[in-house]
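Every protein is a chain of amino acids, and every chain bends into a shape of its own. The fold becomes a row of whole numbers, each drawn from a learned catalogue of backbone shapes. The protein below has been through that process, and both of its lines are reproduced in full.
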Amino acid sequence: MTRPSIATRTSDRQNRLPRRVLITGAASGLGLALTREYLALGDEVILTDLHVDPPPEVQALTGQWTYRRLDVTSEADWEAAERDIEQLDIVVNNAGIAVGGGLETTSMESWQRIIDINLLGVVRGCRALAPKLGKGGRLVITASAAGLVHAPQMSAYNATKAAAVALGETLDAELRPRGVTTSVICPQFFRSGLADSLSGEDQSTDDFARMLLSRTHLTSETIARRAVRGIEARRVVITPDAFATFAWYSKRFTRVPFLLGTRMIGRVTASRI
């Protein structure tokens, strides 16, 4: 894809009023890259993350932005955000973590933690802030290609991201009657802060995931740029890279070969454990 020229992006800014955007998990990785995209479009961004004060990467941003601490697992933090923020145009539920490992090696504590962040964190955000979106608003959820196709040894991560996709598709049907659309971003592995969040009990699986995250050519900036285009186009499921698109369409239209390939991956990973 060709990136829009500076002249085109400047023209877009001049043809509309600035929007107000809130992004969770915005201090690093994809959240920070999405922030930069919206600031480049002339929008106002409310960045939220776990840090008490904005880290240096956030402080270096130019444009109209503010920062607030928000833990997506905290009911009190969401209630405060709901109380303090009057109106929004775009809400991006981006915060998330990764947990690697098969069913037997992933503890119930890890399951509970990833569900609380990746799924219930999104539910809390949608419940608190979707009512702040007026006609033309956009509700966004960062999921993963793992929410569409499900490789072995990532059961907890796959399950929460699949649930996030289902939630996004459901909310799109619920909210469109009042003019609000929902988009779910589903990329493959890309270079971001996700590797730092890997916290499963299966060290070998976490290490393999870190290797994939470090070797991919895709960056947070590339995914953010393509994701924003999909959000602007009001696409419900956004696959911002070729592999995610290919895997999703393979599962939908060539299911038997897809399942055979997935099972072969399962046999290979099982032999390594």
